Q: What sequence folds into this?
């Protein structure tokens, strides 16, 4: 139905819940999935941006994100992208456009709009800026 589904994944509980929903959806519809992990960059000063996680750790996160799809027999590809923490939503939208995705799936902690504006929220950004349909999976265990 969607052809390609892009899933934002960071190995948090809410991302794992979103992955579970995406597995079910992709399996039922016969869609392929691209699991995207954005390796966060931080800017410590004059030295320029640095990755806040080691490459092995980033690949571990990506492998954890793709594993449930492989186990369910869903066609899956992992995509590791470096980027600033405050641009993760934008990166997901760009990848979805480049891949011709019909759906973006993200998890959320379920913060209020005010908290999302203060602390940032990938789901909030994607909902408000994507012209591709978005499925937001709420982490029900945090509330």
A:
């Amino acid at each position: 139905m969607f052809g390609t589904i892009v899933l934002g994944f960071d190995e948090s509980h809410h991302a794992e819940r979103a992955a579970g929903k995406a597995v079910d959806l992709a399996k039922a519809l016969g869609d392929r999935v691209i699991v995207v992990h954005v390796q966060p960059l931080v800017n410590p000063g004059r030295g320029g941006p640095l990755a806040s996680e080691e490459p092995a750790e980033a690949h571990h996160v990506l492998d954890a994100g793709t594993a449930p799809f492989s186990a369910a027999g869903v066609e899956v590809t992992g995509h590791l992208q470096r980027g600033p923490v405050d641009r993760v939503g934008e990166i997901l939208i760009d990848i979805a456009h480049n891949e011709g995705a019909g759906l973006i799936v993200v998890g959320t902690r379920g913060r209020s709009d005010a908290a999302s504006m203060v602390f940032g929220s990938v789901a909030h950004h994607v909902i408000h800026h994507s012209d591709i349909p978005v499925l937001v999976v709420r982490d029900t265990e945090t509330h």
In short: Residues 13-29 form the longest helix (17 residues). The helical segments are 13-29, 55-71, 88-99, 113-119, 122-129. The longest strand covers residues 32-42.
